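User: Predict structure, ligand glutamic acid.
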Amino acid sequence: MPTACSRLAPSPTGALHLGNARTFLWNWALARTQSWQLVMRIEDFDGPRVRPGAAQASLETLKWLGLDWDGPALVQTDDRDPYVTAIEGLAQRGLAYPCTLSRREIAAAAPHEDDHEIPFEPSLRPPDAGRPMDFHPEEGTHWRLVVSPEAEPVSDMLRGELDCYPARECGDFVIWTVRDEPAYQLAVVVDDIRQQVTDVVRGDDLLPSAARQQLLYRHLGHPAPRWWHLPLVRGSDGRRLAKRHGDTRIDHYRDSGVPPERVVGLLAWWCGLLPERSPLSAADFRDRFDETALPSDDVVMTAEDDAWLRG
Ligand code: GLU
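Assistant: Predicted complex:
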């Protein structure tokens, strides 16, 4: 019996690029070398941003790279019941409440810097007595989680001990959206609990979410998983790898005739597993895998990386 379980959780909002492929490959190799279970989940609760066919394409791309996983993929939108049950329990305990305030109204109540998330001030929260105890989604209404003011320390396997203050960083955050769907924070925790995930491996852009998710774990009565937040891949302008840096989609390289071993070889070099770029299969990546070799700094993708891939 595997002693631990990790998961690959692509969002079908776009194609996999070199940045998220690196995280998936590292996650896969960690799970496989430790003999953990590795499950698949399609995170498709992002209505308007989900692109038709993207989920299937992501799975095919991961297989093309040489990854595998255990059992069928869990598709979030196949069954809303587990999320409804979770929010009903939170509402019953007065921990979740409906909110119709606009972004502007929330911003007006909270001092914040322009490029930062706008925290939801506790003064905007309805008093205990005014909160409905039963969850009933309504048009134009979010549901928020009551976030208490204490620090929420996060212990990360790669980043060490971190002090986080969800109340200051985001305040009462949305757990059910106006589109009548669970928000990311709730969906991911409900799923990680039901898929019995013990080890969450993902990019460190999601690090602030770990503290928020810990609050939900506690309210739902489950221990939080171990966190492994990997440094990101950035473009040469220092910004997170995205479309503006050219086409770094794995499918794009595959369709241009680049073999998977070149993609994996570049990712292996970025993960500290090769002294220089050279072709490598996923199986060889796994055999060389050493979690301590991962550079702690973000990777910057250069024009030479792209040229090397194209041979
Ligand atoms: N689906 C998310 C993504 O592709 C990952 C969420 C998570 O790992 O918690 O960025």
